[in-house]
Amino acid sequence: MIPVNEYFDGKVKSLGLKNTQGNFTIGVLTKGTYEFNTSTKEWMTLTAGKWEIELPNSEKKVFAINETCEIPSGIAFKVYALEDSSYLCKYE
């Protein structure tokens, strides 16, 4: 069974995958601003669309397609989806 995650009234959805390479989600989000909390270290890679990510005590940073943001464990961070976007997330 593939786990399905839904957040922010269905504006963010992801599918989970666990294999020999680790734990992953692949997801989509509609244009908007979202705040997420981490319980593990994550690497988020933008696969389509356009977004900015703001980590605590940092300024917003634009990420290009296929560019990855390393996100520490135990924080809240914001994603500003400037248009409908998709991503791949790897969890440690």
From TrEMBL:
Keywords in alphabetical order: Glycosyltransferase, Transferase
Pfam families, A to Z: Ppnp (PF06865)
One GO cellular component, as annotated: cytosol
Lineage: Bacteria, Pseudomonadati, Bacteroidota, Flavobacteriia, Flavobacteriales
Record carries keyword Magnesium: no
Stated name of the protein: Uncharacterized protein
UniProt keyword annotation of Glycosyltransferase present: yes
Gene3D superfamilies named among the record's database cross-references: Jelly Rolls (2.60.120.10)
InterPro entries, A to Z: Ppnp (IPR009664), RmlC-like_jellyroll (IPR014710), RmlC_Cupin_sf (IPR011051)
Source taxon at top rank: Bacteria
Molecular function, one GO term: pyrimidine-nucleoside phosphorylase activity
